[in-house]
C-alpha cells in the first residue's frame, strides 16, 4: 500500500511558500503521493467549506513538480464537468510530462449547485458532463489525433501532443451507482472520501462483483485520546483504532491511501497538521512490522 497526504491548497495562511514547504517535507518523510482539492468559483456554498485563497490544483502541482523528484502529484478531486475535456487533457498531459510521469488524476462530478451556476453549467446534467468528459479525456490521452461527438462536447481531428508520459492513474470519486459504473469502465481505482470502514468495505464488495478496480480511499486523520464509538469515520480515533483502520483497508486491497488532516470550516493549524502526519508515519512503521507500540 502506498500512502499520500492531502495538502490544503486553500484557506487563510496558505501561500506558495507553505505549499512548497509541506510538499518537500512530505516527500522527505517518505510518502508516495501529494494531492490537492479543486474548486473554480468560490460561491457562498463553497467558501463556507473551502475559504479563499484557493490555489488551482493543476497549476500548483505543475509548479511543485520542479521542487520534488519522486513523489506522485494528484487531485482529490478534480471536478471534471467544470472544464472542457480538451482543456483538461492538455493541462494534465503537460503536467504529467513536466513531472516525469507522476500525475494521479482523481475526478468526480461535483456537489456545489452555486458553483455550477456561476460557471454557466447545469447542475442537473453534471452526470452527463462527467460521462462524456471521461470518454473524451481517455481518448485524448491515448491517440495522436482524436475525434469525439457527444451531446455536450464535440471535436474533430484534434492533435493531442504532448500525450502523458504515462497514462495517469484515473481515480473515480463518488458513491452512487453511476460513480461505480464509471469506476468499472474508466477507473484504475475507486476513490471514496470521508467514509466509515464498513461503508468502504461495502463499496469494495459491490465493485468486485462488477469486476471493478481496487479502492484508493481518502480518510480523515483525527487522533483522539479516548476511543470513539461505532460509526466513526475511517482514520478517526485513538492510535489503536486508526491502526485497525489501516490494517482493514490494506486487507480490502487498497493500493493507495490518502490522509487528510484538515476539516472544512476549521482553521488550519500547521503544527497540528504535521503532528498528525508524524503520528501516521509511526503507525505505518508499526503496520509494516506487524506491531503496535
UniProtKB/TrEMBL annotation:
It comes from the Bacteria. SUPFAM superfamilies: Bacterial luciferase-like. InterPro entries: Lucif-like_OxRdtase_Rv2161c, Luciferase-like_dom, Luciferase-like_sf, SsuD_RutA_monooxygenase. The keyword Flavoprotein applies. Gene3D superfamilies: Luciferase-like domain. Residues 1-210 form the Luciferase-like domain. One of its GO terms (biological process) is alkanesulfonate catabolic process. Keywords: Flavoprotein, FMN, Monooxygenase, Oxidoreductase. Pfam families: Bac_luciferase (PF00296). GO terms for molecular function: alkanesulfonate monooxygenase activity. The keyword GTP-binding does not apply. PANTHER family: ALKANESULFONATE MONOOXYGENASE, ALKANESULFONATE MONOOXYGENASE-RELATED. NCBIfam families: F420_Rv2161c. This is F420-dependent oxidoreductase.
Amino acid at each position: 500500500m502506498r500512502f499520500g497526504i492531502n495538502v490544503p491548497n486553500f484557506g487563510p495562511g496558505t501561500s506558495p511558500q507553505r505549499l512548497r514547504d509541506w510538499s518537500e517535507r512530505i516527500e522527505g518523510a517518505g510518502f508516495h503521493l501529494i494531492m490537492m482539492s479543486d474548486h473554480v468559483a468560490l460561491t457562498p456554498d463553497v467558501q463556507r467549506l473551502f475559504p479563499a485563497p484557493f490555489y488551482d490544483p493543476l497549476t500548483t502541482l505543475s509548479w511543485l513538480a520542479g521542487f520534488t523528484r519522486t513523489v506522485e502529484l494528484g487531485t482529490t478531486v478534480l471536478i471534471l464537468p467544470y472544464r472542457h475535456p480538451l482543456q483538461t487533457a492538455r493541462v494534465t498531459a503537460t503536467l504529467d510530462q513536466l513531472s516525469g510521469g507522476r500525475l494521479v488524476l482523481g475526478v468526480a462530478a461535483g456537489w456545489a449547485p452555486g458553483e455550477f451556476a456561476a460557471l454557466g453549467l447545469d447542475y442537473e446534467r453534471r452526470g452527463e458532463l462527467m460521462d462524456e468528459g471521461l470518454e473524451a479525456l481517455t481518448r485524448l490521452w491515448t491517440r495522436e489525433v482524436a475525434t469525439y461527438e457527444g451531446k455536450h462536447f464535440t471535436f474533430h481531428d484534434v492533435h493531442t501532443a504532448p500525450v502523458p508520459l504515462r497514462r495517469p492513474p484515473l481515480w473515480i470519486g463518488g458513491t452512487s451507482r453511476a460513480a461505480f459504473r464509471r469506476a468499472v469502465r474508466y477507473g484504475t481505482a475507486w476513490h471514496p472520501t470521508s467514509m466509515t470502514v464498513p461503508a468502504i468495505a461495502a463499496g469494495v464488495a459491490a465493485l468486485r462483483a462488477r469486476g471493478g478496480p481496487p479502492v484508493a480511499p481518502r480518510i480523515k486523520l483525527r487522533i483522539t485520546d479516548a476511543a470513539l464509538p461505532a460509526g466513526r469515520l475511517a482514520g478517526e480515533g485513538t492510535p489503536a483504532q486508526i491502526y485497525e483502520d489501516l490494517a482493514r483497508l490494506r486487507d480490502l486491497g487498497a493500493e493507495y491511501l490518502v490522509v487528510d488532516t484538515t476539516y472544512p470550516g476549521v482553521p488550519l493549524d500547521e503544527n497540528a497538521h504535521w503532528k498528525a502526519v508524524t503520528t501516521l508515519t509511526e503507525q505505518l512503521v508499526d503496520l509494516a512490522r506487524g506491531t503496535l507500540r
